[in-house]
Amino acid sequence: MSFKNIIFIASLIIIGFTFIFLGYYFQKNYLSKPNIVFILIDTLRADCINPDEESHPITPFLSKLAKQSIYFPSAVTPCSWTKPTIATLLTGLPPEKHGVRYSARNENPNSPMSDVLTDTIITLPEYLSQHGYETYAVQTNANLVPLLGFAQGFREEHFIFANDAPASFVTEKSIQFINNAKRPFFLYSHYMDPHLPYNPPLQFLNLINKSNKASIIEETYIAPDVVIKYMMELIYYNLGKRSDPPSHEFTGQEKQELRRRYHAEIRFADSEIEKLVNTVKKKFPNTIFVILSDHGEEFWEHKGVGHGTSLYEEQIRVPLIIYGRGIKPKKIDTPVSILGFAKTVTSLIDLPSYSQFEGQSLVAEINKKNISIEMVTWGPWKDMDLNLKGVMKYPWKLICNKNTGKKALYNIIEDPKELKDVAEEYPDVVSKLMEHIEISSKEKFLSPSEKTIEIPPDLKEQLEKHGYL
Fold this sequence. Notes:
By secondary structure, the protein is an alpha/beta fold. The protein has helices at 3-31, 60-66, 82-91, 95-98, 124-130, 167-179, 202-212, 224-238, 252-283, 313-316, 341-348, 427-441, 457-465; strands at 35-41, 70-76, 113-115, 134-139, 159-161, 185-191, 287-292, 298-299, 305-306, 317-324, 330-331, 336-337, 372-377, 388-393, 396-401, 407-411, 452-454.
């Protein structure tokens, strides 16, 4: 065989392999179903993301990403604390239907019980698995462990739980998962950092201090156990279940320091989420990211702290970002409910929505206005005896205490801080919104009875770390 023929044959082989590679790359990144990366930032308030600021000190990455995304600055969570909200996101069902209410039931202090997400309900990860997706989760909240039903749809080796692990751990394990993915994947990465007890890495605490130009004494430190004790005592005092105010009342400087530490935790998570998004985007261009929070956090706006205690804006307003291939940037200021998360994910990947998934597809119906949004909270602990139900029909928001019958009405446009109850001035509005509450209150749980399980010692210790017991 002549040298020319050898060169010709070699060229054909190279060209053939090139076409095969390009075909594989095109199929993987353009023709196959897109990957979904679901990033949950626990306890992130909506106002911590601000794309309008040139350089936002709290979330520089997410604030920049919001400009390149479908961005909902006024999304509303179905419940003001984690466990019922995540159950809603994973099942597409409102809290009244999936039956998950409490972190702890303390009827017997020696043997506390916890709600379980029943396996009779199909979860979004299960549905995606049935349609050819590999599913992965890196979970860091003790309320969402496999024992309590939150690993449904994930293979055991594809579900990592590490209580209160830092953002760097979540990013590292998430990247390890997707590096081994062999087909379209759904990745759920849960960043716990902004949650109590606000103990950020020093480098991020210093960043917030310098960015805010706050006059904070560097030696000021509020121990995590002091913070949790104070918050628990204040919550029960505000509910009338404790006669004395907190044993340690925070000074104005200490309150400022708590906010600073909260913001520093968010800044830490923001930096790690940037690493995750950029790594996935580079390796898997055909990926859509859905980034949101489960609830906000109160810092004395209505005389309270934390979350799971009210339905005011600081606790139920969350940011929502949808970013990735095929997503055209748009800002949607109208409030929307994240109840439609599961339906939104199936819409993004062109799968038929499962009949169980309720709410609206936030991509398909983003132009709808003046919809009714419902929310509820019972609080993390059953002995709080809290039963609040709310409904928002912009600009009106009604909050009803189901235990006392007391109703409060707010105009969110004229009174965004919810300081003026106008229920007596607008009885017709109250009556109309109460119709929504009465209808939803008649909904029954899908399971014949609330499913609970005794909390084992190791889980009890993990829940105590964040004030859940």
